[in-house]
Specification:
With about 250 residues, the chain is of the alpha/beta class. It has helices at about 25-40, 50-55, 75-85, 100-105, 120-135, 185-190, 230-245; strands at about 10-20, 40-50, 65-70, 90-95, 110-115, 140-145, 150-155, 160-165, 170-175, 175-180, 195-200, 205, 210-215, 215-220, 225.
């Protein structure tokens, strides 16, 4: 007699906050979550907030994903996200907006993606593949640095850019700088892919943190990094692709 072992599907529970002043938009987002639940074997525990202030007051880091509407009366989504990041650096943040270009500014707040209203279920399902992957790997999103003999663990996604300094690499992060005796090639391998691209032979940039690209430089916060002639084409193409395709070329000052 032959026996077949049928493995039970492994479902995961994902805790979601929807912050949007429009009731119909909140319901549409719920419908989209229900649509992908069976397809991706995920159960969603959802809480809704009709404004940013009610979401922020007494906030506890209990959510895996926050869907944040950008345009809301009172505290808007961008300001709410800034306050959120002061309390929770790890929650996966997704902006929801009527205008795609508005979401570009959200990458400075480490938003993993954005949704354009009205949300289409098929596009939502495709984006959720990336979003859920971020949820699953967030705890594993760490790299080990060897700093003067001490082992230091940092999260890769907080890195703004890497810069060569002699035989060292400086990791410029949102939480301060770290210096490691290592080559840039070796440091790049630690990052295991992701949106990290060289703008010149000495700098590796986290595209999530780029605020502006000009003809010969990229700007990250108060830092201006030169884009070399040899890296310009690949850097611009990578940045445009990261932002969402050729329609974003108009946003770049090139």
């Amino acid at each position: 007699m032959t026996y077949f072992i049928i493995q039970e599907k492994k479902w995961i529970m994902v805790h979601v906050a929807i912050v949007d002043d429009e009731k119909n938009d909140r319901q549409l987002l719920r419908d989209c979550l229900n649509y992908v639940s069976e397809k991706k074997q995920v159960d969603f525990s959802v809480r809704e907030f009709s404004n940013a202030d009610s979401f922020l007051v007494g906030y506890e880091p209990e959510f895996d994903i926050v869907f944040m509407d950008i345009e809301m009366p009172g505290t808007d989504g961008m300001e709410a996200a800034r306050q959120l990041r002061k309390m929770d650096k790890n929650v996966v943040l997704v902006f929801v907006t009527n205008i795609a270009q508005m979401a570009v500014c959200g990458y400075e707040l480490d938003a993993v993606d954005f949704l354009v209203k009205p949300i289409e279920k098929r596009i939502f399902s495709l984006k959720m593949t990336r979003i859920l992957a971020r949820v699953n790997i967030e705890k594993e999103d760490t790299i080990l640095l060897n700093i003067s003999g001490d082992k230091v663990v940092i999260r890769a996604h907080i890195i703004k850019y890497l810069e060569v300094f002699g035989h060292y690499v400086i990791y410029h992060t949102k939480e301060g700088d770290y210096t490691e005796y290592i080559s840039l090639n070796a440091a790049e391998k630690k990052l295991k892919g992701g949106p990290y691209v060289r703008c010149n032979r000495s700098c590796l940039v986290n595209l999530r943190c780029v605020d502006k690209v000009t003809k010969d430089s990229c700007i990250i916060g108060d830092d201006t990094l030169s884009i070399s002639r040899y890296q310009k084409s690949s850097f611009i193409n990578a940045y445009v692709s990261f932002l969402g395709g050729k329609n974003f070329k108009c946003c770049l000052l090139i």
